[in-house]
Amino acid sequence: MKRSAKEIKRMMDHFREVVLRAGIKLTQQRIEIFREAALTDDHPKLETIFRNVRRRLPTVSLDTVYRTLHLYQELGLLAAFRPLNGPAGFDADMTHHHHFVCTRCGAIHDFVDDGLDRLALSPSARRLGQVDSAHVEIRGICAACARTPKKS
Amino acid sequence: MKRSAKEIKRMMDHFREVVLRAGIKLTQQRIEIFREAALTDDHPKLETIFRNVRRRLPTVSLDTVYRTLHLYQELGLLAAFRPLNGPAGFDADMTHHHHFVCTRCGAIHDFVDDGLDRLALSPSARRLGQVDSAHVEIRGICAACARTPKKS
DNA sequence: TTTAGTGCAAAGTTTTTGCATGTCC
DNA sequence: GGACATGCAAAAACTTTGCACTAAA
After folding, report:
1. How close B83 gets to chain A, by Cα (Å)?
2. If we measure between CA atoms, which residue out of A108, A4, A14, A130 comes closest to residue B128?
């Protein structure tokens, strides 16, 4: 789903700040690639970002998109994930949230849950190392798929 | 880490039962591929399974390993995951557990936590669809990496 | 014997890399 | 102007597929 104009503006401002602070160049390609990733919350694939950026910058190449999205991960501007089949997806929302993964259609929906954020981990978990973050992944059938009677 | 002989036997028995019940053939390749996946709890990569199975069955081919591990996922005998970089990994432990992912070395450690299993999901999460399971992924620095002073 | 499974090889996807050219600071 | 970024093309890494042969039931 499309994010609000206000939310996108906030993300773009943050993006510019991080890029400048990192001392790397703010090119047209980088701006458009980030904007495209920030536009929706449905975790677009690289191919989708590439196709949409091309509409504004027709000469952009696929490997620039790969390199740029890789760079953004290192800068902490977005998170990537790889589904079991198909290409990687990207998430420009770096605020703390959890995921609902539909096992039928593969869609991933974000949600926030204050209760889950206060998870108390048992000693068996803490013993494994230094815990930086914890996030919950729910698996199930999303509302849209539940309305569809048969499995395709 | 290597699983106990007792645990491996239990997994192999269950494996045989599921395969027979599914009405598919119990070949040498399938037995050895599953055994190799069940041998350790460190989520071996396909390449590792292939290499080790080859020591017992020198003629086994890479695509048989791919096809067989795919089949096991459909039968619910194991779970697969794809790390951000590198090939897929497999987990033959299908009992309910959570994951500790080391952001430095990439290792994934399983743990069980009764408290987490009783997670109460907020309405915002339930609204997304029918919840089948929930599992927690902790990110942090594992104990082994924490002992290593520098980042290589 | 019959059907499903395997091995081989080839191709399909997805992702990465080297280098000359172009662009931002 | 100088250094970093881009585009192109080629290759690498990973995974899937078609078909003839083999082995399990």
Report:
1. 7
2. A108
